[in-house]
Design brief:
InterPro entries: GAF-like_dom_sf, HTH_MetabolicPath_Reg, Tscrpt_reg_IclR_C, Tscrpt_reg_IclR_N, WH-like_DNA-bd_sf, WH_DNA-bd_sf. By secondary structure, the chain is α+β, with helices and mostly antiparallel strands. Helices cover 48% and strands 21% of the residues.
Length: 245
């Protein structure tokens, strides 16, 4: 047998902390984490701060516990079955497509990009699924990307660290607008002549996906997009909760 691998202590401790949070029902206090892991509170705090910066853990407003973050939950989703999520959300996508007469897209965060899992064409339009499903795109610029940058904890800061200060200022302002409104508009900025609006889909308080609809600027002027955004947010509330923990 070969020599045992040389283990890196900080990685061991980080993995242990993530397992502790998961075993405690998805949320645990600093003191609890440090005690179970057998490390000092300062060490545990420093590791948690790093994991939070990377998006693997997060703290929620009014809650002192640390929770598993969106990035690790996305890894679990990727390792699982995207078809399950697609099937769960397909009925609401169909309703939105029918009410808007526009093309509807379902996207999920995947690392520092967005991946499209499903597309429903506008009634009477060619089916774009073959060219669009599993398509990946950068987060900055599109309405879907702005949703993830605004609502997935730590993601915006991590992505924008590689951008120029001028780009940061512009996107940060747009992200703040999305947080205030609850939806993201695209008035031809991403694809000339195409307008769109995207909303978040949450489960148990965490953003799991974004639903977006697109069409020509004549078919989807700004005022109509705003009305459709509120319709979409109402429709996604009808999605039944998953029984899978």
């Amino acid at each position: 047998m070969g020599a045992p691998p040389k283990l890196i202590q900080s990685i061991e401790r980080s993995a242990a902390i993530l397992e502790i949070i998961a075993q405690e029902g998805g949320g645990a206090r600093l003191q609890q984490i440090a005690a179970i892991a057998g490390i000092g509170k300062t060490t545990a705090h420093n590791i948690l701060q790093t994991l939070a910066h990377l998006g693997y853990v997060q703290r929620r407003p009014g809650d002192v516990r640390y929770h598993l973050g969106g990035r690790i939950l996305n890894l679990a989703r990727i390792a699982g079955d995207d078809n399950t999520l697609r099937r769960r959300l397909r009925p609401v996508l169909e309703t939105i497509a029918h009410k808007s007469n526009a093309t509807v897209w379902l996207a999920v965060p995947s690392g520092d990009e967005a991946t499209y899992l499903d597309i429903l064409p506008a009634p009477g339009q060619p089916d774009p699924v073959s060219s669009g499903v599993q398509q990946r795109e950068k987060l900055e610029g599109s309405a879907v990307g702005l949703i993830f940058l605004a609502f997935v904890p730590g993601l915006g800061k991590r992505v924008l660290t590689t951008r120029t200060p001028q780009t940061n200022d512009d996107i940060l302002a747009r992200i703040e607008t999305v947080r205030t409104r609850g939806y993201a508009l695209d008035l031809g900025g991403y694809r000339p002549g195409t307008h769109g609006v995207a909303i978040p889909w949450r489960e148990k308080g965490e953003v799991r996906a974004s639903i977006c609809l697109t069409g020509t600027e004549d078919h989807l002027p700004r005022a109509r997009l705003v009305r459709l955004a509120w319709m979409m947010m109402k429709e996604v509330e009808t999605v039944p909760f998953s029984n899978v923990e």
